[in-house]
Amino acid sequence: MRLTRAAVLARAKAAALDGVRRLNCWGSHLTDISICRDLPNIEVITFSVNGISDLEPLHQCQNLSELYLRKNNIASLHELFYLKNLPRLRVLWLSENPCCGSDPHRYRMTVLRNLPSLQKLDNQAVTEEELSQALVDGEEITAPPARRSVENGCPESTGSSAAESTTETTSELLNLSLEETNKIREELGMKPVPRDKFSSFSPRETDCNRKNRNNVLNAILLLVKELDAEGLEMVQQTVGRRLQAFRKKELQEE
Description:
Strand content: 5-15%
Distance between the termini: 53 Å
Helix content: 25-40%
């Protein structure tokens, strides 16, 4: 699926592409992010849990400081070639991509050798010792990856509605573990959920309905951050009606 101009403006709540500073497209089934070439002032991008494989569109995002790409389809660390000349990039989350391989040390050293200005990689602070070691153990990337034969073969977006996207995202969130939930919350700038507050990790938790309730609550709290004022008002009205119905039922039972 291609990320479109309309989708970017809607999610960023901006009037023009050059006004977009933050963009969150977590879990949006994206494969084509070519629109990023037209985002000169973007500072924070969340593209985790998508199908992205090509980072070339990001090489012009000179103001980019935080980039979240966890769980995509990035096959080669040579994609880092397109990030090497981003002067303000300080935070990168690239784990759980095919390019990470089976050797975590070599992967981390290669990323740090090519992006020595990073302060945090995969939610772990970068140390001076690591940067020095990366010069020895990391591979220097001097060329972009070899491209596939079909360069523009990505289909056009079918224009999935916001409601469909929200439903799919919520469905995925309901099955998350504590670790996965906190990874997402970190990317969205939210505080982690304490282990004792997360029902699926509680040894005393045997009630399946309660587990589902808490997971749904976690999902809702994540999705609320995506809503604009109009959406929040709709949620408020719906919650108000539900509360009134519950209170009425309680009074009848008494």
